[in-house]
Amino acid sequence: MASKTAAICRGISRRSSGFGVRSMSSWWRNVEPAPKDPILGVTEAFLADPSPNKVNVGVGAYRDDNGKPVVLECVREAERRIIGNQNMEYLPMGGSVKMVEETLKLAYGENSDLIKEKRIAAVQALSGTGACRLFADFQKRFRPDSQIYIPVPTWANHHNIWRDAQVPQRTFHYYHPVSKGLDFASLMDDIKNAPNGSFFLLHACAHNPTGVDPTEEQWREISYQFKVKDHFAFFDMAYQGFASGDPERDAKSIRIFLEDGHLIGCAQSYAKNMGLYGQRVGCLSVLCEDEKQAVAVKSQLQQIARPMYSNPPSHGALIISTILSDPDLKNLWLKEVKVMADRIIGMRTALQENLERLGSSLSWEHITNQIGMFCYSGLTPEQVDRLTNEFHIYLTRNGRISMAGVTTGNVGYLANAIHEVTKSA
Amino acid sequence: MRQQFQLPGAHSSAIDRRLSALVRHLGDSSASSMESQNPNQTIYASVTASFNGDSVFSNIVRAPEDPILGVTVAFNKDPSPIKLNLGVGAYRTEEGKPLVLNVVRRAEQLIVNDRSRVKEYLPITGLADFNKFSAKLIFGADSPAIQGNRVATVQCLSGTGSLRVGAEFLARHYHQRLIYIPLPTWGNHPKIFATAGLSVKTYRYYDPATRGLNFQGLLEDLGSAPSGAVVLLHACAHNPTGVDPTLEQWEQIRQLMRSKGLLPFFDSAYQGFASGSLDADAQPVRMFVADGGECLAAQSYAKNMGLYGERVGALSIVCKTTDVASRVESQLKLVIRPMYSSPPIHGASIVATILKDRDMYNEWTVELKAMADRIISMRKQLFDALRARGTPGDWSHIIKQIGMFTFTGLNSEQVAFMTNEYHIYMTSDGRISMAGLSSKTVPHLVDAIHAAVTRVV
Q1: Do B212 and B305 have their domain in common?
Q2: Which domains does chain A have, with CATH numbers?
Q3: What predicted TM-score, i.e. pTM, was given to this entire model?
Q4: pLDDT tens column, B192-231
Q5: How many whole angstroms separate alpha carbon B25 and alpha carbon B108?
Q6: Cβ distance A235 to A267 under 8 Å?
Q7: Which residues on B lie below 8 Å from A336 (Cβ)?
Q8: Which residue of A has its CA nearest to B10?
Q9: How many domains does chain B have?
C-alpha cells in the first residue's frame, strides 16, 4: 500500500507542473502577519531572555514563593482518583452536569433558591474566555440590536471576544488614573446616560487589570441604578477566591444583584482559583424567569457550542466535580485558595514597603488598596519598556504587574527597578 | 406582567426619596390620582423592566435537539432492555462498552504521575510536540511540505474545532467565501461553515441507486464550481455513507480541482479506522500535498485514539512557503484567542506522549487495527445474516462501504419503525454506527431491518 502511494505521489509530482500548480503563488500571499497578543507575547519574550535576573510579572498565572507554577494538592488527589476510572466518552453539549451544578453553587450560593427552582440556564464552557464568547454570540443572536458596555480599562481579550461576536462595543469609566482607584462618579454617570436596557460587562471581583473593585456600598448603588435603567449585568468572575481568599466574600457583588432581583449572566473560570489553566474549564450561566425559559436558553447556548467545538473537554470538569462534591477535598481546596490569596496580599505589602523604604516620593498605597492578582502600577509604557530593557522585568505595557509573579526573592529587585524608572518622574 | 416592587429595608432614605418622587410622578398621570398621594405606595414595574423578573431573553424558544446527539438522548430515556444505540459514532467493544485504549491509559498514568508536569496555559496554538507529530501523522514524516517547513499546524478542539477555526480563517482571509460540501455529509458541517461566515453549496456524492459514489455527478458539480471555491473532502471513511472514492478516482478529483484552482479542505476524522492502516487512510491527503499545492486538513483523535471527550484535534494549512505559513499561523491565533484563548492540555499531552514514543506508537497501531478489524467483521456478520434471512434487497453495500458507518438505504419511516418497534436508535437518514454492533446484537438488528423492509415502504 505504501509503495503504491509513493508511486502515485511521484507521478503526481512529475505531472503537476503541467497543471501549473508549482507556478501558482500562494492563496495566502496577502495575509498580514498578525500583531502579537499583548499579554501572551510578554511571556514569549520573557522565555527568550537569557538574563539570570529576569522576572516575569506578565501573565496572570499563579506562582509560589519560589516562582514556580503550582498544581494544587486537591487537584493531584482528584486526578489520582480519576485516572484509570473514567471512559473518555463525549460529554453532552452543555458539558458535565455535575460540574455545572457545583459551579453554580459557588456563584449563586450553596443553598440558592434560584438553583433549586432550576431558573439558571448553564453550560460548561472553555474557561472564562469560552464563557464570555458563548454569551457574546448568544447576545448577538437573540438581542442583535444590543451593544456591550465594557469598563476602561479591561482585560484586552474582552474587546476581541465581543468584536468577533460582532456585538458593537461602548465603554464606561472605571479606573481613575490620578487616584489609582475607582472613578465612581463617572461610572455612575455612564450608567445613567446609557440608553435603558443596555448590556454591561462587570468584573465581579479583582478587576483585571487594575485590581480596583467597588466597595459593597458602591455595588449596591450600581445595582440600584441598573434597576432604574433596566440594564443587563454580565459578570465576568475569573478570580473568585483569589481576591479576599474567601470565595463567598468574592461573590458579594453578584449576590447583591441577585438580592435586588436582577436577571444576570455570569462567566466563571477555574483557571486561577483551581490552577487548572490549561484544562480550559469554566461555566456560562444566564438567570431566567423560570425553569421553562432556562431550558430554552440552555438549548440555544448548546446550539452555539455545537458548531464551535461540539462538546467541552471532560478531564478538567471531572477534576472539579470530584473536588467540589467531596467535603474533605473541597475544604482542602478552600485552604489552598486562601494560601494563594494570602501570599499575594503579603507580596503587595512587601512591595509597597520596599518602595517606601527606598525613599520613593510617589504614593504607592494603591498597591495594597488594589485586590486580586494584578496591580495597576501607574507606570507609563516608556517606564515599562525601561523595566524590561534595563532590568529584564516583563510586564504588559499598561503597567499591570501580576503580583502572583512577585516572590520574597525578587520583590527587592522589583522595587528597586520600579524606583529607578520612576524617581525622575 | 406587573409585579410589586417592595423597598428592601436596607436602602437609605435617599433612595426612598427618589422612589417617592418617581411614584408621585407616575401617580399624577392617572385620572384617579387622588389615591396616589401616599408616597409609600407600592409602584408597579413596567413590562420591559428586567429587575422584576422579565428576562431580556423571554422570547427565546427552545432549540430542536441536535439530530445526531439527540439520538443518544432519546436512547438514554428508553427503558427497554433490548435497546440498541447505533446513533453516535463512538466505538464500542463486543460487550457494548466504551473502550479506552491500553496505550492511552499508560500515557495518562505517565502524565499524571509526573509531578514535574504543570497545568499551565498552553500557547494559543497548542502543544508544540502535538502539532509537530500530528502533521507528520497525516502528511507523512517524509512529506515535502513538512520537510519544506511550510505547514502551519494549530491544536484545536477535535474535528469540530479544527473545521471551525479553518472556516473562520477562510472567511477572513480567502477571496472566495464559498465552500462545497458533499451530499450527504456530517450534519454539523453546514452549521460550522455557515456560522463562520461562508456560503455553503453541495456537490453530488452519494448515489442511492448503487449505494456507492456518484462519480460523474461529483466531477460535473466540482467542474462547474467557480474558480477558487473551497471543497470539503472526507479524507477517508465518508460520514455518513462509508462510500470512498478509489485511488484512481481521487487522482481524477485532484487533477480537476487543481486545474480549476479549487481549494481542498480535508476532514480527517477516521485515519486508521477505515482500513486499519494509518498510511493507507491518509493517501488522498498525501496525493494532494505531493503536487505542491495548498490545502487545509482538519484532524481528529476522537475515534482513532478513543479520546472523544478530551476534544483533541489539529488544523493544518499547507502553504506555498515558510513565510506564508508563519503569517498564516499568526492569523490563526487571532481566530483562536477570542474563542477560547488556548486549547485544553490533557488530551493533547496523551497524544504527544504516544506519538513520540516508538513502542507506544506501535502499540497504538495494533489497538487501532483491532478496532478497525472488529468493525469490518461486524459488516461481514450483518451482511451474511441478512442474506441468510433472505431479507429483500441488495445488501452488498454493507461490506463495500468503509469506516464506522453504514448508510443502510433505509428511509426515515423505516427508521422510525425500527426505533418504535425494536428500540433501535439511529439517525433518520438510515445511518448506523457499526461500532455499536456486536455479534450478540446482530440478530436483533437483522430482525428489525427485515421487518422494516417488508412491512414499511
Answers
A1: yes
A2: 38-70+340-422 (3.90.1150.10), 91-325 (3.40.640.10)
A3: 0.89
A4: 999 999 999 999 999 999 999 999 999 999 999 999 999 9
A5: 68
A6: yes
A7: none
A8: A220
A9: 2
Say what the pLDDT of residue B272 is.
97
Determine whether the interchain pair B119/A275 forms a contact, defined as Cβ–Cβ distance below 8 Å.
Answer: yes
Which of A83, A164, A278 lies closest to B108 in CB terms? A83
Cα dist from A195 to A149, A224, A230, B54, whole Å: 11, 16, 9, 18
- Tell me how many residue pairs between chain A and chain B have CB atoms under 8 A apart: 311
The single residue listed with the C-alpha cell 470539503 is B232
Full DSSP string of B377-421: HHHHHHHHHHHHHT-SS--THHHHS-SSEEE----HHHHHHHHHH
Provide the pLDDT for residue B89.
Answer: 80
Q: Which of B250, B267, B281, B395 is catalytic?
A: B267
Q: Is B267 known to be catalytic?
A: yes
Flag if A26 and B320 touch (Cβ within 8 Å).
Answer: yes
Looking at the fold, whether B93 and B128 belong to one and the same domain comes out as no
Distance from CA of A205 to the nearest CA of B (A): 21
| Interchain pair A293, B54: CB under 8 A | no
Q: How far apart are the first and last CA of chain B?
A: 51
List, by residue number, the catalytic residues of A: 155, 236, 272
A10 → chain B, closest CA residue = B290
Q: Is the dihedral of CA A153, A157, A160, A166 positive or negative?
A: negative
Domain of B451? 68-100+373-455
Per-residue pLDDT of A269-297, as tens digits, reads 999 999 999 999 999 999 999 999 999 99
What nine digits make up the cell of A115? 438553583
CB–CB contact A13 B292 (8 Å): yes
Domain shared by B346 and B240, yes or no: yes
Residues of A in contact with B309 (CB under 8 A): 88-91, 311, 313-315
Q: Which of B7, B99, B94, B93 is nearest to B45 (CA)?
A: B7
Q: Are B117 and B297 in contact (CB under 8 A)?
A: no
B188, B131: one domain: yes
- Given an 8 Å threshold on Cβ–Cβ distance, is B251 in contact with A308? no
Among chain A residues, CA nearest to B330 = A34
- Residue B1 pLDDT > 50, yes or no? no
Measured at the CA of B88, the angle between CA B82 and CA B89, to 5 degrees, comes to: 115
Report in angstroms the alpha-carbon separations of B43 from A24, A227, A289, B13.
72, 13, 20, 17
Highest mean pLDDT among A30-44, A222-236, B61-75: A222-236
Asked, for residue B6, whether it belongs to a domain, the answer is: no
Contact B161, B313 (CB under 8 A): yes
> Is B54 annotated as catalytic?
no
Are A266 and A235 contacting, i.e. CB atoms less than 8 angstroms apart? Answer: yes
**Angle in degrees, CA A404, A409, A412, rounded to 5:** 95
- Least Cα separation, residue A277 to chain B (angstroms): 5
Contacts of A297 in chain B (CB under 8 A): 57, 60
For residue B186, indicate whether it is catalytic: yes
pLDDT recorded at residue A19: 44
Candidates B192, B158, B243, B203; CA nearest to B66 is B192
d(CA B228, CA B211) in angstroms, rounded, equals 30
Cell numbers at A104, concatenated: 453554580
Nearest to A89 among B275, B290, B309 (CB): B309
- Asked whether the beta carbons of residue B340 and residue A2 sit closer than 8 angstroms, the reply is no
Q: Which residues of B touch A273 (CB under 8 A)?
A: none
**Would you call A296 and B340 a contact, using CB atoms and an 8 Å cutoff?**
no
Question: Cβ A309–B98 below 8 Å, yes or no?
Answer: no
Q: Of the residues B307, B327, B356, which one is the last residue of a structural domain?
A: B356
The share of chain A scoring above pLDDT 90, in percent, equals: 86
Same domain assignment for residues B235 and B281: yes
Q: Answer whether residue B60 is part of any domain.
A: no
Q: Are residues B89 and B155 in the same domain?
A: no
